[in-house]
Write a structure and sequence with these properties.
Helix content: 40-55%
Oligomer: single chain
Strand order of the largest sheet: 1-2
Shape: globular
Strand content: under 5%
Radius of gyration: 13 Å
């Protein structure tokens, strides 16, 4: 699920309910620039539900990457968001 156009979680509060009440919905991080947005979502759903997304070419990749790097999350959570979560999804895809 894309983060949407609204940059503030107060306008996207339904994300909290979706992440809390489902196991197969993942949220892209490219619009989560506000203070503590990523941290707040992780507190509800754990880091395993967020997927790093730079939204290139509309944003420079360093903008989205820096947001993850400077977050107050533990390094393991940062790794999950940066690449481990998408690797897990891809590894579960069976092509016949």
């Amino acid at each position: 699920m894309d983060g949407g156009d609204a940059k503030e979680l107060m306008f996207n509060s339904y994300f909290f309910m979706l992440l809390k009440n489902s196991t197969n919905i993942f949220l892209s991080t490219h619009n989560l620039f506000g203070t503590n947005q990523i941290e707040d979502l992780v507190s509800v759903s754990e880091a395993g539900r967020l997927l790093f997304d730079s939204y290139f070419p509309f944003y420079e990749p360093y903008i989205s990457a820096e947001r993850i790097l400077v977050s107050g999350l533990p390094d393991e959570s940062k790794r999950m968001i940066a690449f481990q979560n998408i690797e897990k999804i891809y590894s579960g895809i069976k092509i016949r």
